Amino acid sequence: MIPVPGFEGREVAVFGLGRSGLPSARALQARGARPVLWDDGVSGRMQAEAEGFQVEDLTQADWSRFAGLVLSPGVPLTHPKPHWTVDKARAAGVPVIGDIELFARAMAALPEGERPKVVAITGTNGKSTTTALIGWVLNQAGLKAHIGGNIGIGALALPAPKGGEVYVLEVSSYQLDLTQSFAPDVAILTNISPDHLDRHGGMEGYVAAKRKIFDRAGVALVGVDDDWGRRIAGELPNAEAVSVADFDGRLTHAGQDVADLTQARSLPGRHNAQNAAFAYATARALGVPHDKAVAGLMTFPGLAHRMEEVGHVGPVRFINDSKATNADATRQALASYPRSYWIAGGRAKSEGIEPLADLFPRIAKAYLIGEAANDFARVLGAVPHEVCSVMEAAVAAAARDASATGQPEVVLLSPACASFDQYPDFEARGEAFRAAVLGLQGAAA
Q1: Is 272 a catalytic residue?
Q2: CB contact set of 313 (below 8 Å; sequence gap of 6+)
């Protein structure tokens, strides 16, 4: 845990008791604050009470007594409309912050010689893989890197800081919206495409939230293979532009040839070349020698649910890319293979799959699941497809058709949709895919 100073002896409201809420309360209490917790869900309140925290219905509280409101990033700050806790906090002049802001204040309070380095990664797609890859490369090079934030362990639940160590944090647009003093040593924006627009009031609000990662950053690494990234890079005087537009299998950095990524089994495709470029640039910025940085890239084992090979039946490989919850993420997956048997569908995002039309010739056949199945069937038109509705049926049908060719083939789960129509999250969807694959006759992991 990372104790958070600055609120000693004062009450702090904490709303939302998920991945960030309870760790925030523990971190505040560890330095003498008196957190007051509430959640709309009974289970969160019960866990807080079991840990001995003060649980109080904040709808009835006197908000003038609070030194701050720590808001879960899953709770609306501005759009579609501010949450009632935000309205109450603002009416009482109480600052609204999040767990990453608490983390930033904890880091700033440390003596300079005891302050670890901080790497922060955001973006619409690729941020989880980039975060995990950077952590892997740094640890393989002999540094002590802690990985968390919006991936895995909440930032404040990571081990207490020590000089010479590194925190590698994935941060979402929701978390960045709740920061004022976050100052990472290396800040990364992977890419930007439309996502979560309802929570930010449109594209400009979404981009503004992402851009906040650079407000107080040291090294700024910006993906410039999309229009928004190019615009942001042009606005930052010291930004290092990262592009893989001309990627041909070789990774380059600052005009120099770095590595042959075709030899890195867990980093296929142009999108993973971008992840690798960010990881290499970060490692070098933190003093990792070239050879050790490249060795880390080559040995990366990959990340669950991100272009993860989960099994095979004879020459047919099954790829789990359940993390692809929008068309732009699925574009990266479809473009990674000359031909695939594609499983897609779920709860569609606003853009649907129309932006993928140029990749339809790569689809041997599509197998459609979830709420979006019939709409996607209409968009696919003459592209061979089958409405399967559920994962098990889609995997069985795709395995049947791919195996019938007798050739090496790829069955690709890359849904281009949210999972919430059938699964609680993309991880559960990916595990359902894995289970269905391993249940096939002749399947091997």
Answers
A1: no
A2: 399, 403, 440, 441, 442, 443, 444
List, in order, residues 6 or more apart from 343 with CB less than 8 Å away.
Answer: 366, 367, 368, 369, 388, 391, 394, 395, 398, 411, 412, 413, 414, 415, 433
Tokens of 35: 């957190």
Tell me the whole-structure pTM to 2 decimals. 0.82
Q: Which residues of the chain are under the pLDDT cut of 70?
A: none
Active site annotation includes 150 = yes
Q: Active-site residue among 79, 139, 196, 290? A: 196
> Is 305 a residue of the active site?
no
pLDDT of residue 288: 98
DSSP string, 35-71: EEEE-SSHHHHHHHHHTT-EE--TTSS-GGGEEEEEE
In the three-class reduction of DSSP (H, G, I as helix; E, B as strand; rest coil), residue 316 is classed as strand
User: How many Cα atoms within 13 Å fall on the side-chain side of residue 78?
Assistant: 17
pLDDT tens figures, 91-114:
999 999 999 999 999 999 999 889
Q: How far apart are CA 347 and CA 326, in angstroms?
A: 10
Whole-number pLDDT of residue 439: 96
Q: Return the biggest CA–CA distance within the chain.
A: 71
Which alpha helices (H) appear in 286-425, and where do they start and end?
A: 290-299, 327-334, 373-380, 391-404
| Nearest-10 crossing angle of helices 127-140, 269-285 | 50
369 φ, ψ (degrees, to nearest 5): -130, 165
Q: Is the preceding peptide bond at 80 cis, omega within 30 degrees of 0?
A: yes
Residue type, 127: K
In contact, 146 and 159? CB cutoff 8 Å: yes
How far apart CA 363 and CA 337 sit, in angstroms, is: 9
Catalytic residue among 88, 125, 146, 150: 150
The residue type of 113 is G
Marked catalytic residue, from 88, 127, 146, 385: 127
